[in-house]
Model the fold of this input.
Amino acid sequence: MITYLQNLSFWDWLALATVLLILEVFGAGGYLLWMGLVAISVGALTYLLPDLPWAWQFLLFGALAVLSALIWRRYQQRPGKVRS
Done:
């Protein structure tokens, strides 16, 4: 398992993004959409910096995923939004 983590490539992040975006189709309320976009951005960063350690990749993904979820939640709860 450690060997796999040490050899993460941008393809792994793009595969995760694909899974998250497919799951979003089944109605996750937008959260998986943003986490999928975060996975794409971490994949792009991994493509540009292939020697980025896997721990930093996961920390970056986690931090950006939490940040995007908080921003999405705040956007959803803004006043004057019509709920259906």
In short: DSSP finds four helices and no strands in the chain. The first helix runs from residue 2 to 6. The chain has one domain: 2-76.
